[in-house]
Design the sequence.
């Protein structure tokens, strides 16, 4: 039987730990001996003096977070099946079926007009500082790689320089910057920048502004994400900004207009306000109306992003997306996150990725078997390397064409940025210095980029963008190797048969055959030749 484990009462995410780390009660997470006189290093203790602040991962703005719960089944419970026979998507010729020949391109949308060089996308990362502070690297790196990047929720509402008249946005600084950083570096139409909207964004007219003023061709409606089942939240350390957001209609806690709250803040009783978004209220009528409104703006493609909600909500998402001609549906499994979702919620809420993605395939097949045109699907939830990307694509084949990743691209951009600063300061760490002391020496893709872009453009590249581009280069080569081993030479020929379940439980949940049952009929036929 698989082990399910949740860490309770102590985590690096909440900056807490047990006094008796080697002796902890499994059900409560408390130290086996809780001693009178302890200063309260655990989550219970810290909550005794900081209260609701301890709900969230810390420190806000410089971290990304994801759940540390161990689920009964995850993608490591499946193995990739290779073969010594034939090839799909290329001639079965040893001189042609080499791994560099694997085509990772994806073309999708109602007219197949969206084209990605690689089968992955960064789903919505929005108004959190971790996204804003690394956007230059994320946008330019994504554009150079020719994949997708989604500007997440609340960017307009959080921008103090946004101009809002009669409750509708008419001008922005941050959203303009985010779109422009991508479009200025996009090459030959590869990749895409997507603008996402939640409840507050919809009220502000963010998507209409993005299409009509900024020329956005792709917008995304957001139902939710894998990290939480409430709206997005951030911390605000500036009173004036907290008051501005309150006036713009956000839920801000505590009330920044209350004189007693203002006095407590100024006296240092607390240092941050919380800004929360509202939860959406989905209905088919409202969904259909919103799709029609967006199409009237002239937008070319419409996406939908949903989260780890109960199965009926997943069914609604794929049914509505199919019925109303949505171009991409992204389904994000539990445990993910990029910002500051409530920590216990992130660990204990929602349908985990394998279960959610297995249901997604089941529902998509049910609709396709009825002759319905299912939209292109993307799956998200903890994907970081080529093996998991392969598994996500194969699990949902032939419907899933993209894998969503956010934390790992952010990490790559942050590391690139940090190394760039170290090189500029002449303070390259020993761990990195063994590769060299310059951008050209440290980043393995530098020579290629310099040749492709020319010296002048290359010198302008932010190191964060090079970090993301180089990470993507690694993923692409690794994925090509795995696909070649399974004799799959493009994304469209991938199959659920490329996977095997390592446990009966994984097989039962996913419908992927248990490894001891794989190829049984073919095996019986082969053995007859002897």
Sequence:
């Amino acid at each position: 039987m698989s082990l399910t484990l949740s860490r309770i009462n102590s985590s690096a995410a909440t900056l807490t730990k047990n006094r008796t780390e080697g002796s902890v009660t499994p059900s409560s997470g408390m130290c086996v001996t809780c001693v009178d006189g302890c200063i309260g290093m655990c989550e219970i203790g810290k909550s005794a003096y900081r209260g609701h602040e301890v709900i969230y991962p810390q420190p806000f703005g410089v971290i990304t977070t994801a759940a540390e719960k161990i689920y009964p089944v995850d993608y490591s419970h499946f193995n990739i099946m290779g073969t010594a026979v034939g090839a799909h998507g290329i001639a079965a010729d040893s001189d042609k079926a080499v791994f560099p020949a694997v085509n990772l391109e994806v073309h999708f949308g109602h007219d197949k007009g969206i084209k990605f060089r690689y089968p992955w996308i960064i789903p919505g990362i929005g108004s959190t500082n971790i996204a804003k502070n690394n956007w230059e690297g994320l946008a330019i790196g994504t554009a150079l790689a020719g994949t997708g990047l989604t500007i997440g929720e609340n960017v307009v509402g959080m921008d103090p320089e946004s101009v809002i008249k009669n409750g509708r946005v008419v001008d922005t600084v941050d959203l303009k910057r985010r779109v422009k950083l991508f479009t200025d570096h996009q090459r030959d139409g590869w990749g895409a920048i997507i603008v996402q909207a939640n409840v507050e964004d919809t009220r502000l007219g963010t998507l209409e502004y993005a299409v009509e003023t900024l020329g956005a061709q792709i917008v995304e409606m957001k139902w939710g994400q894998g990290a939480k089942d409430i709206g997005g939240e951030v911390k605000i350390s500036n009173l004036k900004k907290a008051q501005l957001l309150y006036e713009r209609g956000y839920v801000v806690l505590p009330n920044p207009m209350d004189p007693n709250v203002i006095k407590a803040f100024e006296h240092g009783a607390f240092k941050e306000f919380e800004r929360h978004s509202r939860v959406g209220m989905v209905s088919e009528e409202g969904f259909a109306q919103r799709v029609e409104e967006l199409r009237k703006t002239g937008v070319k493609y419409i996406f939908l992003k949903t989260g780890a909600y109960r199965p009926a909500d997943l069914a609604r998402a794929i049914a509505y997306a199919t019925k109303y001609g949505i171009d991409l549906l992204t389904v994000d499994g539990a445990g993910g996150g990029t910002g500051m979702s409530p920590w216990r919620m992130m660990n204990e809420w929602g349908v985990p990725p394998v279960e959610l993605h297995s249901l997604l395939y089941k529902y998509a097949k049910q609709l396709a078997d009825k002759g319905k045109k299912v939209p292109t699907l993307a799956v998200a939830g903890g994907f970081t390397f080529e093996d998991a990307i392969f598994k996500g694509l194969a699990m949902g084949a032939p419907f899933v064409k993209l894998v969503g990743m956010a934390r790992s691209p952010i990490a790559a951009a942050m590391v690139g940025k940090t190394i760039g600063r170290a090189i500029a300061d002449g303070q390259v760490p020993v761990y990195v210095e063994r590769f060299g002391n310059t951008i050209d020496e440290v980043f393995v893709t530098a020579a290629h980029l310099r040749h492709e872009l020319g010296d002048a453009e290359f010198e302008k590249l932010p190191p964060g963008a090079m970090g993301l581009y180089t990470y993507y280069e690694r993923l692409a080569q690794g994925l090509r190797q795995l696909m070649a081993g399974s004799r799959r030479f493009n994304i469209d020929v991938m199959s659920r048969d490329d996977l095997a379940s390592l446990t009966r439980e994984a097989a039962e949940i996913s419908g992927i055959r248990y490894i001891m049952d794989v190829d049984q009929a073919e095996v019986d036929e082969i053995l007859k030749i002897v």
